[in-house]
Amino acid sequence: MTAPATARRTVRVDLGDRSYDILIGPGLIPAAGREIASRLKGRKIAVITDAHVAPLYLDDFMAALKAEGIEAVSLVLPAGEKTKSFEHLISVCDSVLAARIERNDAVVALGGGVIGDLTGFAAGIARRGSRFIQVPTSLLAQVDSSVGGKTGINSSHGKNLIGVFHQPDLVLADTDVLDTLSPREFRAGYAEVAKYGLIDKPDFFAWLEKNWRAVFAGGEARIEAIATSCQAKADVVAADERENGQRALLNLGHTFGHALEAATHYDSARLVHGEGVSIGMVLAHQFSARMNLASPDDGKRVEAHLREVGLPTAMDQIPGGLPPAEVLMDAIAQDKKVKGGKLTFILTRGVGQSFVADDVPQSEVVAFLKEKLPK
Amino acid sequence: MTAPATARRTVRVDLGDRSYDILIGPGLIPAAGREIASRLKGRKIAVITDAHVAPLYLDDFMAALKAEGIEAVSLVLPAGEKTKSFEHLISVCDSVLAARIERNDAVVALGGGVIGDLTGFAAGIARRGSRFIQVPTSLLAQVDSSVGGKTGINSSHGKNLIGVFHQPDLVLADTDVLDTLSPREFRAGYAEVAKYGLIDKPDFFAWLEKNWRAVFAGGEARIEAIATSCQAKADVVAADERENGQRALLNLGHTFGHALEAATHYDSARLVHGEGVSIGMVLAHQFSARMNLASPDDGKRVEAHLREVGLPTAMDQIPGGLPPAEVLMDAIAQDKKVKGGKLTFILTRGVGQSFVADDVPQSEVVAFLKEKLPK
């Protein structure tokens, strides 16, 4: 049933008395009961998942808990971004309280980023903070949203505007589940993997350029890439848990990316988050070159790698057309604060040399977007 | 307009980078604009209040903000415990986001405990944590709920089961507003003042026995009593912010009190929170005597003082009858965890000598309640 421990990696997220382990490797869903039972004082769990993930993994997961004498209830929510709403937050809270989950028990998110963000938020507010375990089932969730404690739901005023920082007590990243992802979903998660190289790990980016096929194929290279990504995010989060400074580096590619997601109305048929980040990272490198901060060759290198793995790298690859530069700029301004015509942006001096720039002229961004938008 | 600074007291709540000041004294609502403007980087505020408080203080408060160039919006909610619901939480969050309250701006709770708990929760989750200012308008809120960072709403499963710990950035306790409280409301808040003496400040309790008339009348003695209470709570909270240990002492009288509130269906015509605490504190002293922990004389002394100020001190003073001891015990068990027939309870060895007992036999509590319930 369970994989040999040698294939497994552990990343420690160091946050004082909120520190926790991320276990990464094959067979972690079948082994979940044992891993949880050995760490949890309580014997009760509420499992939150969605209609996409439940048919694939819920039975196995519940059986794994039962085998260790853990009493569990489950709640299956609709799949998709719309589930990150107050309506579903209320139903998760209600399930958790109805199951009488108390201090030593736990709430589990079994799913991708949507389920993780929603469930983490519910765990953060039920009894003013309950134990929380993440079992991320997408590559994106394994390398990004399940690390760092950001939880939340969307509001009519914008995405993720309501939530809390609530660190999990344990993350079980079962790499076997990634085999059931569509190539497009896997690639979208890979954009975030590449991001960690581009932020401050040029060696990791070079390693990915050589080894990306093995990462896509599975096995040791994939585990290595996920562990490196989790460690990279864990290091940033440990240094700046509440995003007062350097944590902003994790937004490399996200300012342009979020604007493109908003411009395509979060229609996943047109653009998913990781694809927006891929295009956004290329744009961030190109914009940095335009500002004479980086060589244009770095942008070309980033673009070549992301294109090679099959990710979109330019705005003209988004089906259905885009609004004009000024409208994209408005979307950026809604995401980031504009002070006196200046923006905070993640720019770069080259591969692995990103930095937080807080004085980017809005007019330069608009001019750049006009150049890059499909004519 | 504003009172001389000499009449004002400041209590510092020492919580590292979440430390804050509680200003206590007359004229703080008219002076609110100045006090806030000197501490807040932003210039935008969302004020949340209720239909009971708004006609009394909202205009003055908004004018005080405007005079200092602070842009403010307000939201008036229905008064009463039912407002602590997801429905109103959603509307507060929506107001805060619609007003584009950002990191350096603030959300203000202008009201009693209900408005404070609800607004603090909304501030704790809007943008994953916004600045929060408490302007408590009841004695109970000034000495209890506005200190310590507990926020929340009620659920069908129980009171305060959904919420976060979110410390305010500033508390303005304007003692002038207490003159508009009904004597019953003032007395109910006074029960919590007396509680701080009974927990671990025998000298303060003795001072109250001598000076309670001056506290009720207003002026220096009232300010002194409020400042001592806030300092007492601040000390406990600083030592144990998330209630892992000694913070439980603040629940003296609350285990019995909550059971009585539940038994009277939170009907404020029959029993308000502070009255439940008053009876609960007397019961806690009597029960401690029954367990041979304290002298019966201490219980008599506590009862005499609370009766003298006009608070109820025995269950037979609650109009409308009470359920049998077993039903009250069930309500206690819902509030507190029962392990192997044993309860955690705040007991006492005498006035100012309370302690956390975690092995109180349930059977003893039931027998005691049977004795004390009206026949």
TrEMBL record, chains A, B:
Record's catalysed reaction(s): 7-phospho-2-dehydro-3-deoxy-D-arabino-heptonate = 3-dehydroquinate + phosphate
Protein residues bound to NAD(+): G113, V114, I115, G116, D117, T137, S138, K150, K159
Keywords, ordered alphabetically: Amino-acid biosynthesis, Aromatic amino acid biosynthesis, Cobalt, Cytoplasm, Lyase, Metal-binding, NAD, Nucleotide-binding, Zinc
3-dehydroquinate synthase N-terminal domain: residues covered: 75-187
Any GO BP: amino acid biosynthetic process
Localization, UniProt: Cytoplasm
Gene3D superfamilies with a match to the protein in the record: 3.40.50.1970, Dehydroquinate synthase-like - alpha domain
Main localization (coarse): cytoplasm
Gene Ontology molecular function, alphabetical: 3-dehydroquinate synthase activity; metal ion binding; nucleotide binding
Names of required cofactors: Co(2+); Zn(2+); NAD(+)
Assigned EC number: 4.2.3.4
InterPro entries registered for this protein in UniProt: Dehydroquinate_synthase, DHQ_synth_AroB, DHQ_synth_fam, DHQS/DOIS_N, DHQS_C
Cofactor comment: Binds 1 divalent metal cation per subunit. Can use either Co(2+) or Zn(2+).
Start and end residues of each 3-dehydroquinate synthase C-terminal domain: 189-338
Family affiliation: Belongs to the sugar phosphate cyclases superfamily. Dehydroquinate synthase family.
HAMAP family, sorted: DHQ_synthase (MF_00110)
PANTHER family: 3-DEHYDROQUINATE SYNTHASE, 3-DEHYDROQUINATE SYNTHASE, CHLOROPLASTIC
The name this protein goes by in its record: 3-dehydroquinate synthase
